[in-house]
Amino acid sequence: MTLRLPIYDDVVDASTALGVAAYRTPVLTSQTMNARLDAQVFFKCENFQRIGAFKFRGGYNAVSKLSAAQRKAGVVTFSSGNHAQAIALACQLLDVAATIVMPHDAPAAKKAATVGYGARVISYHRQTEDREQIARALVEEQGLTLIPPFDHADVIAGQGTAVKELLEDVGGLDLLFVPLGGGGLLSGSLLSANALSPECAVYGVEPQAGNDGQQSFRTGAVVHITPPHSIADGALTSALGQLTFPIIKQYARDILTVSDGQLIDAMRFFAERMKMVVEPTGCLGAAAAFNELVPVKGKRVGILLSGGNVDLSAYAGFLQSN
Amino acid sequence: MTLRLPIYDDVVDASTALGVAAYRTPVLTSQTMNARLDAQVFFKCENFQRIGAFKFRGGYNAVSKLSAAQRKAGVVTFSSGNHAQAIALACQLLDVAATIVMPHDAPAAKKAATVGYGARVISYHRQTEDREQIARALVEEQGLTLIPPFDHADVIAGQGTAVKELLEDVGGLDLLFVPLGGGGLLSGSLLSANALSPECAVYGVEPQAGNDGQQSFRTGAVVHITPPHSIADGALTSALGQLTFPIIKQYARDILTVSDGQLIDAMRFFAERMKMVVEPTGCLGAAAAFNELVPVKGKRVGILLSGGNVDLSAYAGFLQSN
């Protein structure tokens, strides 16, 4: 992993590298929400991205940047979620061997999807084993290249292409709300917003139960927490990264938090009014805007919907929970 | 109601009349479905249309075609579903008074949405009253113009704009699958397909429980049935129309039927893999293609998803029913 901080030029390079491999996802609007908030709201729909989440952008960009020797040796990562599938699909498309270190109790559907993209899955016990250690051993013993989920310059640059597209499509914004876990998406988004809409106030949004990002931002140093409990399962990180934090610290306006109940309300709105499935984590930015955690009236508001991968029966439960 | 059969020129006129009032809905694709069917499948997503269904196209076109005197007197229609909201919103946008005749037991949410668009709702008892009679009395007594749900040249022409857009966006198709209720969408689609992709075989798809369209098509005369039971609540018509049937008879390749179980499987696919809410009726065309009721291998296949308006708790039940 390099410690060079990515810049907007890297996002532009990532756009070129992604080419047509990633979808240019649609930007949707809702008259209902515009009227409710008295604002102009633009939803960047990464739930329609390949593998159902923005993660494909960063994963593909990182794999595409490997040298011929690195490609030949293969890639390893640790993830039970969208990053695993992103790396698996990127490697399949770029003809690189992928190894994914996953908890032994990861949902069978997620394992199957990852294997379906041709990846090798190595299971570990959450309680007794350290996934990073397993991954690093593979790096040392088998010469694999580790592509971590967020703290990697090429991953961050790839994630930044979503907001680059959004701003190219709709023009400048006053406010932008972005889900925050480890900060790969937020830091990439900040690079694009700063370059293309420098007046835009960008907010990272994380679960109330796990506000390490907010604490870090407000104290000025990375705060570590025990992994929180929230339905936003893509944002259960315990700390921001060495690369993501400096970028967030420099460019973000603030970090906000929302409750699981607010995420469920947003999920229901998307299903009922916009006919979209958005996963709980994907609703973080939307929930902050919908609840007007900062004033949105009269503003041009961007909302990044990060993904749509949610187990159908859990999703059905969320829809019925009112 | 005029008995002049609409032609493709009317669809072109409707496109102009709709202007930016209707969304040009996205055409989405799924690598998963392409691989499963070994075909190239294009989904025209009218679930993302205003009011959540294609019906807005026909309703708006019909209201926009009224004379100044007709606009001043106002419009009436009978519907408990998407057509009611389509007319209500079209009238609101065009500053025309709308009266909607709805069953007294229509879902409260649907009544509220219709009233929310500024329409007057008149309730009737399904068992003891005839909605068409009520509407026609309003026409005679108050000089309102009746815009029926499907058997109307301007409505048909408006509905045809969806497939016009689809073919403009993706080029010619080999096969096209369209949901079939009263035939407004199918007949409009046939006009566009015949003009823009004349080699394309167009199939109407209706619920197995109510195959009046199939019987009519195959016998060559309109067959009336008692309103069927199916989860496809937008396709529970008892007969094709005087305008829709001749167009369907002339241009459709065949009428196919699917089961409620096949509709649920399609709904689950859209939620799980494409992150979209599609209502049961909206899945009719998709279910026929997914189950390969005609051979699709190696073909360029268009699928019209007609809408996404489904009660959330019913929808949650469908998602959990496997």
What does this structure look like?
Two copies of one chain form a homodimer. Chain A has 322 residues and is an alpha/beta fold. Chain A has 14 helices and ten strands. Chain A has helices at 8-18, 31-37, 55-64, 68-73, 82-94, 108-116, 131-142, 153-170, 184-196, 212-219, 244-251, 260-274, 284-290, 312-320, and strands at residues 27-28, 40-45, 75-78, 98-103, 120-124, 145-146, 175-179, 201-207, 254-258, 300-305. In chain A, the strands form two sheets. A six-stranded mixed sheet of chain A has the order 1-2-10-7-8-9, sandwiched between helices. Chain A has a four-stranded parallel sheet with strand order 5-4-3-6, sandwiched between helices. Chain A is globular and about 55 Å long. The mean pLDDT of chain A is 95. The A-B interface holds A 26, 28, 31, 47-48, 50, 52, 268, 271-278, 308, 312-313, 315-317, 319-320 and B 26, 28, 31, 47-48, 50, 52, 268, 271-278, 308, 312-313, 315-317, 319-320.
Q: In summary, what is this structure?
A:
Chain A has 322 residues and is of the alpha/beta class. Chain A has 14 helices and 10 strands.
Q: What's the total count of β strands of chain A?
A: 10
- Classification by helices and strands of chain A: alpha/beta
Greatest interface (CB-CB under 8 A), with counts per chain: A-B, 24 and 24 residues
Describe the main β-sheet of chain A briefly: 6 strands, mixed
The side-by-side strand order for the widest beta sheet of chain A comes to 1-2-10-7-8-9
Radius of gyration of chain A: 18 Å
Q: What's the order of the H and E elements of chain A?
A: HEHEHHEHEHEHEHEHEHHEHHEH
Flag low-confidence runs of chain A: none
Mean pLDDT of chain A: 95
